[in-house]
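dumping this here so i dont lose it
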């Protein structure tokens, strides 16, 4: 695996109805020398217009296709831009751009193909119900695909371009996080986790999984495993 440069990093930001936060997220990432690719996933608010006015690369789905589809579109766009490292970054303000340099360092040093930013390697203020949901996701990921990570549902990840090309993302919605872990094992990619600190607000906590979506996600993962 070739070493990579910090100056050839693309940050993919999937966004659906994120007009409240997308400008701030883009401005935060702009503090660093990274290309920014926003994937507007069929938003019905001003997300697309705000991103277009921010002088970044914007891809647009005309209809809402789901997180998995948005990540696939963004990763393909980053590869077309010939990025050495591709970072995925949530649009709800949960992540901070200051976590990106340590996230990509193991890839730059040739130590890993994929790095996951884990919210569980250090103490954090994640609400109990969200912590329980994430740990459940870890257990399901392990039982179905035989690989254990401390934060399988993290949205902050980094991929060497070689690893990104190997990924075959077939799922369209929230189950993509577990599918990425499955693909890491399938292709024998080296994986590392580093600690990150997430920011929880009423807005960011309103995003993500709920019980009903969790059941749907589990059923889709079972289909992915056994089809």
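and the seq i came up w/
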């Amino acid at each position: 695996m070739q070493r990579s440069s910090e100056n050839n990093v693309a940050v993919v930001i999937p966004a659906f109805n994120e007009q409240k936060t997308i400008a701030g997220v883009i401005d935060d990432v702009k503090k660093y020398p990274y290309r920014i690719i926003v994937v507007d996933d069929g938003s019905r608010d001003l997300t697309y217009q705000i991103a277009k006015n921010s002088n970044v690369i914007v891809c647009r789905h005309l209809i809402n296709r789901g997180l998995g589809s948005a990540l696939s579109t963004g990763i393909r766009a980053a590869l077309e831009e010939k990025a050495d490292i591709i970072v995925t970054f949530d649009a709800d303000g949960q992540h901070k751009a200051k976590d990106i340099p340590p996230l990509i360092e193991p890839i730059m040093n040739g130590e890993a193909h994929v790095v996951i930013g884990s919210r569980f390697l250090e103490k954090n203020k994640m609400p109990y119900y969200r912590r329980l949901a994430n740990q459940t996701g870890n257990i399901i990921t392990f039982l179905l695909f035989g690989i254990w990570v401390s934060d399988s549902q993290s949205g902050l990840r980094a991929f060497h371009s070689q690893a990104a090309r190997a990924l075959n993302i077939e799922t369209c919605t929230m189950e993509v996080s577990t599918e990425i872990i499955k693909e890491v094992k399938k292709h024998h990619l080296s994986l590392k986790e580093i600690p990150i600190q997430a920011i929880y607000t009423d807005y960011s906590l309103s995003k993500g999984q709920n019980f009903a979506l969790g059941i749907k996600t589990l059923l889709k993962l079972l289909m992915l495993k056994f089809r």
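The chain has nine helices and seven strands.
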